[in-house]
Amino acid sequence: MGSKNKLKRFKENETFSNVIQPTREELTGAQFQYKGKWNTKFFKNDQPIVLELGCGKGEYSVGLAQAFPEKNFIGIDIKGARFWRGAKTAVEEEMDNVGFLRTQIELIDYAFAENEVSEIWITFPDPQIKYKRTKHRLTNTEFLQKYKKILKQDGVVNLKTDSEFMHGYTLGLLHGEGHEVLYANHHVYKNEGAPKEVTGIQTFYEKQYLEKGKPITYIKFRIK
Ligand SMILES: C[S@@+](CC[C@H](N)C(=O)[O-])C[C@H]1O[C@@H](n2cnc3c(N)ncnc32)[C@H](O)[C@@H]1O
Question: What SUPFAM superfamilies does the database record attribute to this sequence (predicted)?
Fold first, then answer.
């Protein structure tokens, strides 16, 4: 994408009421205005809150919001020019149960209060295979502890990925740390049983992997 196009999207994001783009200072300084208040100040209802981490263009956030109008969804990514797509669709379709937050996932516990979140989706994360990149892997111990902090006690995490490495790494870690694996499938379009929302919504990256014939995997788990 050209820089002119990106600038246009950044500008348009600023006009969308469903996009929140705090500076690092706003997020980490004195209490961030939406922390603990996403229901009352942002959605203005008391529906459960579901996050999509690394939402890219926001296909899951928008798709799930359409499928589950009784829940609220927030797509999170550091790249605003990507989620512009999802935000614009949500504006055009007048959807009031989906929003987008531009931040680093590392700062997620500054953005949400304890017990504020019911569910998390991690969709096609960069697997960060190199040892030096381990700390950026979105299902490592440190991230799981951050998710646990903001999730309700019975809150669940969904991981959908094409990366066999990420699938195996996460399953191993979950078993090793004694978390609760609720469901796992290493080829969701071949092995029956994956929930409808797993096979029924496809992201930008997923479509590229499917064209290459890669299996798509899925795990649903609870952090102990
Ligand atoms: C491989 S893409 C997948 C995007 C989308 N979920 C999809 O399936 O099309 C990974 C996304 O995660 C975002 N991302 C990666 N690490 C992040 C971090 N630490 N904080 C915020 N966003 C991050 C990237 O900007 C990118 O949009």
Answer: S-adenosyl-L-methionine-dependent methyltransferases
**46, 96, 109, 126: which one is catalytic?**
126
Q: Tell me if 78 is assigned to some domain.
A: yes
- Provide the domain count of the chain: 1
The string of pLDDT tens digits covering residues 105-151 is 999 999 999 999 999 999 999 999 998 889 999 999 999 999 999 99
- What does the alpha-carbon distance between residue 88 and residue 141 come to, in Å, rounded to a whole number? 34
3-state secondary structure at position 25: helix
Which ligand 1 atom sits nearest the alpha carbon of residue 55? 6
Taking CA atoms only, the protein residue closest to ligand 1 atom 23 is 54
Name the amino acid, one letter, at 187: H
Q: Is residue 19 part of a domain?
A: no
Active site residue 126: yes
Range of the domain at 146: 33-222
Q: Ligand 1: distance of its center to the CA of 77 in Å? A: 6
CATH code of the domain covering residue 216? 3.40.50.150
> What is the number of the ligand 1 atom nearest to the C-alpha of 103?
21
Compute the average pLDDT of residues 87-111. Answer: 98
Q: Which helix (H) or strand (E) holds 152?
A: strand 151-161
Percent of the chain at pLDDT above 70?
100
Rg (CA), the chain: 17
Tell the residue nearest (CA) to atom 12 of ligand 1: 54
